[in-house]
Amino acid sequence: MELYTLEYFMREALKEAHKAFEKDEVPVGAVVVCQNKIIARAHNQTEQLNDATAHAEMLAITSASNYLGSKYLSECVLYVTLEPCVMCAGALNWAQLQKLIYGAEDELRGYSLIKNPLLHPRTQVLKGISGQESKELLSQFFKKLRE
Amino acid sequence: MELYTLEYFMREALKEAHKAFEKDEVPVGAVVVCQNKIIARAHNQTEQLNDATAHAEMLAITSASNYLGSKYLSECVLYVTLEPCVMCAGALNWAQLQKLIYGAEDELRGYSLIKNPLLHPRTQVLKGISGQESKELLSQFFKKLRE
């Protein structure tokens, strides 16, 4: 079995972010990986679904849980192009995610701005993978929005 | 138009909590009220849906947003039988909820355990409405679970 790299999976998450961009959604994308296989893909759909809870991570958690038939993602890695917000970090805590890998930091709404630890104590975190590319896509989106 | 009381709406949320109880779900229920009318009802379905994000509040937000065709609930009141967790508080922040009314405090997972304010600055909060009844239902559930 070929082992994919972190960058490969983050590129797949970035593809999802680009899908969001094309639909005039804040461009954030995510994939859930279990045993080196992508079991869920999602992008932000808050506008399309008129639903503030429809962040890429939330949709990816629901989709992965549905695939596994389990509400726990304790053997899964979530790749997301932007640092999760408080809501998504809270959801990842309930799901007992094994590992969170994110691209760009969210200096306004990122969960790490909160003093208390929000993720599950067992969740490992890695950040900065393709962070620059994610950040540029977001900048491009907000520039377009202001025009 | 008859004006209903807080207790009336919380009783409706408690009915939802009882539905959860009957399905062996942690008994938490919620209703969303807009202009004195219930526009969404939900109860915790994490077991039934195998989805850690399927808390009563999350399902109620999605349902209310769908009804209104808007991701903002800035003219809505959420009644929920138990204090929301971090995930749900984060979701209520994004939805810019007008008012949160909850029953029992959640001493283990309640959002108010977090030092930073998690709700939207404009969200008003009222707690303790039918709190004892909600607490007793939860105690009964966890007692049954341990048997």
Describe the structure.
The structure is a homodimer of 147-residue chains. The first copy, chain A, is an alpha/beta fold and 147 residues long. Helices cover 37% and strands 20% of the residues of chain A. Chain A has four helices and five strands. Chain A has helices at residues 6-22, 56-68, 86-94, 131-146, and strands at 29-34, 37-43, 76-82, 99-104, 124-127. Chain A has a five-stranded mixed sheet. In chain A, strand 1 and strand 2 (37-43) form a beta hairpin. The first copy, chain A, is globular and about 45 Å long. In chain A, 50% of the residues are buried. The A-B interface holds A 46-47, 49-54, 58, 61-62, 65-66, 68-72, 85-91, 93-95, 113-116, 118 and B 46-47, 49-54, 58, 61-62, 65-66, 68-72, 85-91, 93-95, 113-116, 118.
- Biggest chain-to-chain interface with counts: A-B, 33 and 33 residues
Radius of gyration of chain A: 14 Å
Helix content of chain A: 25-40%
Order of helices and strands of chain A: HEEHEHEEH
Strand content of chain A: 15-25%
Mean pLDDT across the residues of chain A is 96
What structural class should be given to the helix and strand makeup of chain A?
A: alpha/beta
Spatially, the strands of the biggest sheet of chain A line up as 2-1-3-4-5
Which assembly state applies to the chains in this document?
A: homodimer
Q: How large is the count of helical segments of chain A?
A: 4
The biggest beta sheet of chain A is recorded as: 5 strands, mixed
Low-confidence regions of chain A: none
- Span of the ends, CA to CA of chain A: 47 Å
